[in-house]
Sequence to fold (188 residues):
Amino acid sequence: MEELSKEDTLQLRKKYIGEACILFFANDPLKITRASGQYMYDEKGNQYLDCINNVCHVGHCNSAVVEAGYKQMKVLNTNSRYLHDNIVRLAEKITSTLPDKLNVVYMCNSGSEANDLALRLARHYTKAKEIITMDQGRSWEKYANEVGDICKVIQSRGKHVCAFIAESMQSCGGQIVFPPGYLQKVYR
Fold:
């Protein structure tokens, strides 16, 4: 299939992809056409060090990961609602590295799915529904000091907080490390 121009790709994206699915570098988005190791490449062959995607843990197109995925997809490519040896063997391997009390595994295929599951578990456990989250990594010190006040406001409305959710390091606006003691203040 012939590759589209960057402008054609952008126009088709605007037409068919929902606005909520934002692009990095909105004024001049990158058109990434391939990747290898820690690098991604645009349609002109320009190389970019990938410090954003989670695949960087093992690199793009890591041969061992690609081969394992290929072998599994040749056999079975479905969800976890059926019995299969690989899922239970992986869960057993994971739990063998954890403390005894951490002995159950939930399989997720993305950070979004993991967050959704975590929130459902928190709501089930606490019987509460309200969530406190970061506001794009802004106002940390002020926010950390006001979390108690926010919880009081929520409780004054007859509601309760089930979860606080934040990345261990804010990474959507760059790799931003929390100030020392920040999370301790929030959890208090």
